[in-house]
Amino acid sequence: MSKHPLLCFLFFLSFSQLLLSSSSSFSNSTKICSHAQSLALLKLKNSFSIKNSYSEYFKHYHLPNYPKTEYWKEGSDCCSWDGVTCDLVTGHVIELDLSCSWLSGTIHSNSTLFLFPNLRSLNLAFNNFSGSSVSDGFGRFSSLTHLNLSYSSFSGRISPEISHLSSLVSLDLSWNVGAEFALDGFDSLVQNLTKLQKLHLRGVSISSVFPNSLLNRSSLISLDLSSCRLHGKFPDHDIHLLKLQLLYLVENYYLSGNFPRFSENNSLIDLVLQSTNFSGELRTSMGNLKSLQTLDLSHCQFSGSIPASLGSIPASLGNLKSLQALDLSDCQFSGSIPASLENLTQITTLNLEWNHFSGKIPNIFYNLRNLNFLYLAGNNLSGQIPPSIGNLTNLHYLDVFQNQLEGAIPSPVIGFSSLSYVDLGYNLLNGTIPSWLYTLPSLVELDLSHNKLIGHIGEFQFDSLEKIDLSMNELHGSIPTSIFELVNLSSLYLFSNNLSGFPETSVHSNSMLPKIQILDLSHNNISGIFSWNVGKDTLHYLNLSYNSIIGFEMHP
Description:
Elements: H1 4-22, H2 35-46, E1 49-50, H3 55-61, E2 84-86, E3 93-97, E4 103-104, E5 121-123, E6 146-148, E7 155-158, E8 170-172, E9 178-181, H4 185-192, E10 198-200, E11 222-224, E12 231-233, E13 238-239, E14 246-248, E15 254-257, E16 261-262, E17 270-272, E18 277-281, E19 294-296, E20 301-304, E21 325-327, E22 332-335, E23 349-351, E24 356-360, E25 373-375, E26 380-383, E27 397-399, E28 404-407, E29 421-423, E30 428-432, E31 445-447, E32 452-455, E33 467-469, E34 474-478, E35 491-493, E36 498-501, E37 518-520, E38 527-532, E39 541-543, E40 548-554
Parallel strand pairs: 3-5, 5-6, 6-8, 7-9, 8-10, 10-11, 11-14, 12-15, 13-16, 14-17, 15-18, 17-19, 18-20, 19-21, 20-22, 21-23, 22-24, 23-25, 24-26, 25-27, 26-28, 27-29, 28-30, 29-31, 30-32, 31-33, 32-34, 33-35, 34-36, 35-37, 37-39, 38-40
Antiparallel strand pairs: 1-4, 2-3
């Protein structure tokens, strides 16, 4: 999930504010930073080079970033330096936040970083410390409550000394992919760090069974053990972590279990079990997850039908009224899609693709006005596309590929001004292509292939399209002029129709399809001399076979 770095940033920001309530930068105090501390910080600065290794990442996630240590100047009060916070009474450095500071280099065991025994918070996230390990030195910070070394290229064995930091409230070692716990190292950490509220180890190799004792940590708020090589079976008893809001176990392929059982008075917001070996049917008790905003069970082995409690929202409880993202894709679910999903009025993403759902798509979309992404591909759905789908005015993605849907494509009630992706391919849809599909200002991909559509291809009104696939239908007439004016189009599939040619005014244009890479017009009724200057510098694949073309001419 792409939102994780932002969550990390906000989490540490909130705790930094708590720390600052009792201590602040020393610029407003009469006490100045000691010479020893200044010297140690300057040596730490000089042990790194400045290199922005995460520039694209910072830009994508809008993370504030700059080389903080460049503003550390000898002779000035180190307690006023960027990223440094001192205790108001003692003058000791108690917080060091060098996250997103462009630091590059190795943290050696004799680094002056380890000369600050009074540190309560240390954040080195989003730097490049390649060649560094989470060494014994980090175990010296006996007062540390917050440690964030995420996204910083640490590798090798994680020192067992880190499990001695018994005051830790937040530990984040995420995405140090080369780092690993020693045998029993993770168990020791879980047993000793009894105050943890946040534990994020995504991408760190744990290679052990899921420790039952972790589910006894009543203080836990956020737990992310994704991609940690966990195996064995997840505990099947009730989970009484009343404060737990986030649980991520993504991509632990050999971790099995049933759907977790949470007590009724839980606080869970995100539950993500994607790409694990969890299986069985969903429990009706999942209706207890009243605060849930994200439920991702994709690429698991769950089966059976969706329980009614998932969609039903009794007025007295308001079950699942906050659900915003539901992803059950690529599992073994069967039966019909429950009509009670219409009650999930806050949902923005609904993904049920690549299961065994059958029957009609329920007419549930009148109240789902916030829906942005709808994925129903790869099921056995039949009947017509429900008319209420036209009410989804905020829809970006519509994917019902490879089902048994029939009848005409419905017309929207208001319009899909935000729709960028439409895939209705591999169904039994008939009738003509509705006019609204030619007038979508944001449309990037359109796939209506392998249906029974008839009539002419209309004129496209906007040039945002990059891919069009209308192949394997019963369309006839000339290819419209507007298709040749789509300046961003890279793939055009019109094969296996009854198309008869091109508009005369288009074939000699000097600006036709400047980005086209794939063009397949085979198995049509195009005749005469193919005279075109399209794709001279970009075209990778051209198929004109099974037409009545008698010659080929490329214009300069």
